[in-house]
Amino acid sequence: MKTLLSEVENRKTVYIDDGDNEKFAIPEFISQNLKYPLFEWQQSAVQNFLIFERINKISAFPELKNQPTHLLFQMATGAGKTLVMAALMLYYYQKGYRHFLFFVNQNNIVDKTESNFADSTHAKYLFQPKIMQGETVIPVKKVERFSQNPQGIEIKFSSIQKLYNDVRIEKENQTTLNDLQKLNIVMLADEAHHLNSQTKKGQQIEINLTAEITGKTKESEIEAKGWEYMVLNQLLHKNGKASQNVLLEFTATLPENAEVQAKYADKIITQFDLKAFILKKHTKEINLISSTLNKKERILHALLFAWYRHQVALKYDIANFKPVMLFRSKDIASSWQDYAFFMQLVKDCSAQDFDFLNHLQGSLTQHNDDIYVQGKTRTEQALQFMQRENLSSWHIAEWVKNNYQDRNVIITNSKTNTKKSEQTDADTERLLNNLEAANNPVRAIFTVDRLTEGWDVLNLFDIVRLYEGQNSGGSTKKTPETTIKEKQLIGRGVRYYPFEFADKPKYQRKFDNELNHDLRILEELFYYTFDEKSRYISELKVELRKSGFLTENENKVLATFALKSAVKNSQVLQNWLIWGNRKIPNPNAKQHNVESLQQANEMISYQIRSQQITETHLDWQTEQDQDLRINEQMASYVPSQFIANMEKHIFDKALHIKGKAVNSLFHFCNLQQKLGLTRRNQLQQDVLANWKILWQGNKAPQADDKLQACLKVLDRMETLLAQTDTPFIGSQTFNPKSLGDIFTPKQKYVEKNALNPQLAEQYDWFMLDNFAGTSSEQALIELIEQNMANLTAQFDVHLLRNEEIYKIYDFKNGQGFQPDFLLLLKSKQKQPIDGREQHLCYQILIEPKGEHIKDNDQWKQDFLLSITEKYGKAKPINGDFANYRVIGLPFFVQAEQENFYQALNEVI
Asked: Are 838 and 830 contacting, i.e. CB atoms less than 8 angstroms apart?
């Protein structure tokens, strides 16, 4: 089946191959007015949209561009589709649209989204504090009734049910259907999978269009009346009249059945599913803790981990860390009872309450080969942490009593609610939608079904299922509906809590291969349940796996990598010195800021372009060739020009060009953050006003000369500021540690088909007792084996795979790097070194790379080669150990093995 998505992405591929990226470049007006830069998948979504907008005809769907725009963005839960909505609103504003209608199926999602789009004081507001178009501030206003000629962006927020009822009845300050049909509107429909429930079922129903939609209205009728009739027919297509309206749908879970897929073949513009999101490490991992603990013990078990996370965050200086836990009850009455039970438990909490932790061995279910069922391992780690840090159960009890008082615990059901479904008041909604804020006191939430959709939270780490027994409503063939709701609830909690540690990326998981690191506990969502026979966990895992929350880690096994016995028993190898440098403050860092840039008064020379011919004169006597340039006379200078006097449109164009790169300094939001700018023209008229361009040439500069000179000025400014942005470097000095101290046993989960212990056993010179690696890494090992006779003629040879234990730091910026292999060579013959006979010892750093990714890591190869240049064959790494050499080789690329081996021979 042909799809719009395939047509658009095929066209994008052609543009990229032709070097024509401008065809889908994101306008500066969008990137500069968003609060956050777009992640790559968000950029891709917007780029696909721009390609669709900028082409006149799509061959597979020839009538599509003659109809009102109707597109769907399918993006995983937590992938930031709301920021994409904000980007699209800016696009349509720039195109001339002023009226935006946001609707969804739940009121709580409406309330949350109002904060994203219309409350500039809210922490989750997605635009810059001031949206700027040139020198003009664009206001964003929440409205109930659209005005005819607004000065900025007007947004009406509604549920689909309320919208249907409101537009049919004329009220004061209320937008009617007649009003809407007179305007050009951009409609944003969130959680759109609810709007296709009947398409999924293939049903057609009779509807009464005069009846209001109420809480008792069936889903089928809501779709038919609110969606098919009102949104599509009356609003998007204006009952068949000419329409420039736009409908943009957003969902994480579009049904996969044939009817829905066919319906959206010409509408889906991007797809970024949960599996892709998880593989990019932007979510927490899920840990299912199945036990036979009673309710009180399950609560205390979860409180142990909340305390443990808090302690770990304190230890590693993670500021304002506040772990939130959620308790799920079976029904509203039970939720109130559980809430009261918890509050009494907290009030009476004592050190003795945690004594059960010492007898957990038979109470927790664990499968050592399942990364998602690690309750026992994590509990042991928490208890070991307590011992190491000299902490006791008394500390846990005191922390619990201080942190779970009335103000710290909420229930998603107001005391005045008399309905069967949960309802929260406005104050509770505000707390729920801003849990990460430092001044938000909430640490625990009691709920039933209230938070399964439309809830954005990063610091939820524990979900405790308080009731026992199999969920009702299912059979052995069909998963119960409540299990599916629990899957949805888990989906809200997997969003990653970003934190900084060393040189690891802030917004991604950092410890997938260091599962025993203290901070790994901040990258996991724990789900606690009573499950005597494990059937419930099995069903839940099936549902989580179907939705992509659990990747296919049945293909992963827990493997241990340790030095072979022969290595551990060898004093020579145990004491072999491994050399590494440190990450240190950059002593040459300069604190450039607005004042220093203003005072710099830089003078930038620019050669005005002129006609020039170059001749090469061959001097046969001296064998020195001379370039003779024949051109217009260039000795004279055209008068210099201050940046403040440069034509504004030329300087702005230079800013626009520089700002095209992702995360460019010259995005206005980054200039605001870096330099505190409040106006766009402040850079030219204030910060760089006294910088000069010295024109070189015998004619006046043309527009292109001025543009290129301005780009040169901005390059210089970025260079100066970059010195501030390089606070660290890698030390030039390498220091030794013994191999036995560095390389301790390492456990991690690896792909089953990558595990090859036989390879480790096969070669005596391979130092670890296990191996798991890529085909490129295996090819390296085979190359060494093929040339072993040549190597062993001169050296004792050992190869050590670095299981992410040894790290070195780039001389330029201190960026960390863990080369995959260390080849250790010791000369068999002693030679005179530093006045005495010694064995020469080489530590050779090797990094295999696939052909398709070597260019992305070019800095690593540059760093390896700079090590060789600084030290290399003839230069000792340290004066006290003159017989040691540290060498970095070019990347090992499988298709270029001969070049690699030649490089190895040249340095030894």
From this structure: yes
